[in-house]
Amino acid sequence: MTTIGVLGLQGAFREHVRSIEASGAESVVVKKVEQLENIDGLIIPGGESTTIRRLIDKYGFLEPLRDFGKQGKPIFGTCAGLILLASEIDGSYDVHLGLMDIKVRRNAFGRQRESFEVDLDIEGVAEGYNAVFIRAPYIEGVGESGKVLATYNGHIVAAQQDGYLACSFHPELTEDHRMTAHFVKMVEESKKSLAL
Ligand code: GLN
């Protein structure tokens, strides 16, 4: 069985557990570094990226999370999790994990549009996907080896690069589990190739 962890330091982690299980994998909430050894992939949830970063430092997760990604184990960053994965954050010197070659802008849709829902086409994943955005970032640029999966109003809101998947919206808050199911498939494939 494939097991996917959800980083449970702050934010919407419990809803991800439900979405992973609905997509046919097992899920655990990761609160301790040692738990990373027992999972095949990891979701970093939405919340507040600065708060999650503070807790990552407090509980000694920074290097273990970087090692996890560099071993080839997939990581899916949603909303604040996308900011944590990025190699560049617009207007900030701070970079958190820096694992995925994307440049992001925080709170990018402005104050008037704190939260909204749209139907998105996500390449290779879903058509008419019900996407919920909450104080969402967007991706300003994707590196050469990355692929844009979805845009909204001309802005990139989902991308993939190797084992890294990132989206601006919250795939755990609706009954539409197709984005999570896509990640589950990525993890199953990586598990097979890591076992070779
Ligand atoms: N605005 C938040 C941040 O910058 C992200 C919001 C979210 O995860 N829903 O961390």
Structure report:
The structure is a single chain. This protein has a 7-stranded mixed beta sheet. It has 5 helices and 12 strands. The protein is α/β, with parallel strands linked by helices and 196 residues long. The chain has one domain: Rossmann fold. It has helices spanning 13-22, 49-58, 62-70, 80-85, 178-195, and strands at residues 3-7, 26-30, 41-44, 75-78, 86-89, 100-105, 115-122, 126-134, 138-142, 147-152, 155-161, 164-167. It binds glutamine (GLN). Glutamine binds at residues 46-49, 79-80, 83, 106-107, 134-135.
Outline of the structure:
The protein is α/β, with parallel strands linked by helices and 196 residues long. The chain is built from five helices and twelve strands.
Q: Look at the structure and name the CATH superfamily.
A: Class I glutamine amidotransferase (GATase) domain
Could you give the count of β-strands? 12
Please give the largest β-sheet: 7 strands, mixed
CATH topology: Rossmann fold
Low-confidence stretches: none
Mean pLDDT: 96
CATH hierarchy class name: Alpha Beta
Order of helices and strands: EHEEHHEHEEEEEEEEH
Roughly what fraction of the amino acids lie in strands?
A: 25-35%
The distinct bound ligands, ions and cofactors come out as:
glutamine
Query: What does the overall shape look like?
Result: globular
Question: What is the level-2 CATH architecture name?
Answer: 3-Layer(aba) Sandwich
Distance between the first and last residues' Cα:
17 Å
Q: How are the strands of the biggest sheet laid out side by side? A: 2-1-3-4-12-11-10
User: What radius of gyration results from the CA coordinates?
Assistant: 15 Å
Strand-pairing-aware structural class: alpha/beta
Number of domains: 1
What fraction, in percent, of the residue positions are helical? 25-40%
